[in-house]
Amino acid sequence: MLLIVLLVAVWGVDDAAANQRVPRNVTLAGRDVGKLPADQLAVVVRDIATHYKTTTVEIRTTERTFEVSGGDLGLALDEEATTRSALNMNEGISWWSRPGTWLGSFLDQRPAPLHFTLDSRAMEAALASAAGDAAATEPRLVTAGNSITIISGSPGTRISSKGVAEQILERAESGEEPIVVNTEVETTKPAVSDDEAKALAAQLTASTNPGLTVRSGDQIATIAPETVRSWIGSRVAGGRIEPTVDTAAAVEAVKAALPVTADPADARITLENGAPRVIPSSEGKICCAADTDDRILATIISGVPEVEIDMESIQPDFTTADAEALKVVEPVGTTTEWKGQPQVKSFTTYFEAGQPRVTNIHRIADLVRGTLVKPGETFSMNAVVGQRTREKGFVEAGAIANGVHVEEVGGGVSQFATTMFNAAFFAGLPFGEYQAHSEHFSRYPFGREATMGWQHPDLQWKNDTPYGILIWTSHTATSVTVQFWSTQYAWGEQTGQSTGRSGNCTTVTTQRTIHHPDGSTSTDTVGARYRDRGATRC
Description:
This protein is α+β, with helices and mostly antiparallel strands. The chain has three domains: 2-132 and 157-186, no CATH class; 194-321, Ubiquitin-like (UB roll) (Roll), CATH 3.10.20; 326-531, no CATH class. It is built from 14 helices and 35 strands. The protein is elongated and about 135 Å long.
């Protein structure tokens, strides 16, 4: 009796000392964890968890064996549950039985249970990857000669996952290594049978026999049956085979059959019966509208041999509204006098009739007539007219090159340049590039004129008004006139002129006063340099 009392007393002391520790002589995955405190136990558990991530799992089928790591299969040690079980090994033992259990622990080890989790999605993916699962191939439609036929489907194979998760968990919890799992290889069938695919192929062959009639407005085109069939493919969705259409190829074929019907036309401003008129812009039309591919797809799938499509609208760069907003409504400038003739919001220069240069003056005036200079734009004579050539209607006439009188194609166009220079001068427009003749001719205003060459000198002026400027030209056998149409904004007048000498040349500075819409004025100057008679340069 005394011995029993003594053993119980010793057990009590030992049990009190084991608080928050693993009971005596407990093992975990073959490792002695008895008497370990919770923090040291957690280190052991973490090490065991790492081990099971790399432990080998053998997946055995009748054909072969695959090896996969536990981690790849989604196997993971539940560290919290495993730690708790080891610490609480005595929780289920009654108090009167615990001294006996304690005494027995000196003789036999007690294994603590392992707790695991398994990610089923990871397991399925690992099984498929390890075995190289082959998915079933669905039948598909193809074009063959004058019909649509099929390429047959084929079965696939996969490792069955039935019962695998349960086996992995059972083997892992038992401590068995390597973990061995038995399963079977399954055959998977296509979702769609060849007969279903053949029925659809026959249906589409019949519906495409007439080809495809495409209508757009009053235009009609027919696409050949073999071309239509070349667009057709198939897909399997929801357990059914459905036709598909290569809509990109279909749209390209329709575009070729229905070319552009109309180019867009910009608005224009012209002068009719002495007044400006806006000629409206118009949309362009080109195949095809954005929904064309959807319409073709729906038509072919439904078996209808005809489709109505719309053309795509192409907007002009310069619309009627754009033109009207420029407010080209009246001649602009001021009234001055030249050669005894009043120049009323226009400028005219004069010449002798019948000379070759007159042909060139008339021709360049015709080419420039109707040019529209928008707000902020700079007019360039050379940019608008280009090089003067026989192909453009210019002829040989007198000109000055390097101070020498010569005959060249386009000779005489400088008279038109001078006429426009004066129109811009009295309209108060700022000049860019310009150059006076190297000698003065009485047909030009002294010090207020411009010559032309290719590619320089050029005549340039800028539209610094908020309105558009329409250049309108006219000519007679003995004169050429340039008139600017816009909304009256600023105007200029000559308010001074001075001359000087530079070598063999007379220099001329002409002052212009510009009257602005707000009533203010500003001044600028234009210059000319005329060589002395007989001299070729200054």
